[in-house]
């Protein structure tokens, strides 16, 4: 009887492995020739991401995929994954969160439906929070390095170079980061025959930053009116520096307010306990 059960389990396991191999073989190969390399964490789960993305991509609406593609582009992940693969990561995150909750619940012998609902909700929206954090980080890096690139552009244009040459000099000498990548795309668009204004508008659409939108509008107005590009860029550079100083000053003024909560909750009680302990001990011994 035991041998029969073992044989059945072995056959079932073999059929499971064969089925998984057939399912994986039906998934088309992932062509990443023009894509950015995956992080070590994504490499571990990428085969599962491909499977889920392949089998659910037909059920996703076009509007949803377009919105996700736009968010991936703003976050700088459009050259790492597609919208279908991003949704697959959300599905896998939900399954992993549910599995971890079930495992912990069985170990603690306390598995409740509320925990499962919360785990599914958390796992499904965790990639969204991560994507928003990446978007804010990338936009912050662009805003931080924008005055430096504007200085390089101003010096190059005032030295007699055209916009394409000035952008090339700025990209070669500017700090590494997402803004350099975006300016390289602008250079490629301009060399491909796209107008300067349209190339910068495309960059503004990709990054969705107020400072970049202001720069693009100023360059377009200078091109229409025939104003000096060097003077326009210098004004933009000075304005970006003033705004950066104002943001730093605002954060410095907000710091005391943000410190009130940890002071009241963590530091003040411990301080009072340290000061009150000798007094309490002395009072107890005197009694």
TrEMBL record:
InterPro entries: T2SS_GspF_dom, T2SS_GspF_sf. It is found in: Cell membrane. The lineage of its organism: Bacteria, Pseudomonadati, Pseudomonadota, Gammaproteobacteria, Alteromonadales. This is Type II secretion system F family protein. PANTHER family: INTEGRAL MEMBRANE PROTEIN-RELATED (PTHR35007), PILUS ASSEMBLE PROTEIN (PTHR35007:SF2). The chain crosses the membrane at residues 86-108, 114-134, 259-281. Its main location: membrane. Signal peptide: none annotated. Residues 150-275 form the Type II secretion system protein GspF domain. GO terms for cellular component: plasma membrane. It is a multi-pass membrane protein. Keywords: Cell membrane, Membrane, Transmembrane, Transmembrane helix. Pfam families: T2SSF.
């Amino acid at each position: 009887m035991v041998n029969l059960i073992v044989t059945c389990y072995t056959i079932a396991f073999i059929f499971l492995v064969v089925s998984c191999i057939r399912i994986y073989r039906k998934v088309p190969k992932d062509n990443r020739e023009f894509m950015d390399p995956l992080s070590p964490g994504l490499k571990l789960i990428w085969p599962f991401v491909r499977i889920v993305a392949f089998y659910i991509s037909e059920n996703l609406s076009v509007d949803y995929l377009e919105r996700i593609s736009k968010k991936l582009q703003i976050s700088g992940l459009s050259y790492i994954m597609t919208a279908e693969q991003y949704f697959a990561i959300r599905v896998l995150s939900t399954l992993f969160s549910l599995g971890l909750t079930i495992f912990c619940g069985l170990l603690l012998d306390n598995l409740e439906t509320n925990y499962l609902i919360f785990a599914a909700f958390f796992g499904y929206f965790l990639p969204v929070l991560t994507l928003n954090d990446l978007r804010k980080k990338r936009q912050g890096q662009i805003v931080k390095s924008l005055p430096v690139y504007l200085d390089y552009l101003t010096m190059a244009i005032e030295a007699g170079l055209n916009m394409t040459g000035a952008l090339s000099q700025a990209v070669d000498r500017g700090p590494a980061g997402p803004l350099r990548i975006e300016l390289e795309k602008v250079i490629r668009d301009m060399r491909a025959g796209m107008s300067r204004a349209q190339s910068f508008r495309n960059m503004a659409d990709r990054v969705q930053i107020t400072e970049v939108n202001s720069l693009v509008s100023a360059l377009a107005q200078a091109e229409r009116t025939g104003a000096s590009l060097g003077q326009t860029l210098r004004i933009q550079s000075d304005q970006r520096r003033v705004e950066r100083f104002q943001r730093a000053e605002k954060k410095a003024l907000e710091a005391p307010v943000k410190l009130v909560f940890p002071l009241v909750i963590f530091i003040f009680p411990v301080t009072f306990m340290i000061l009150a302990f000798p007094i309490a001990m002395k009072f107890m011994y005197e009694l």
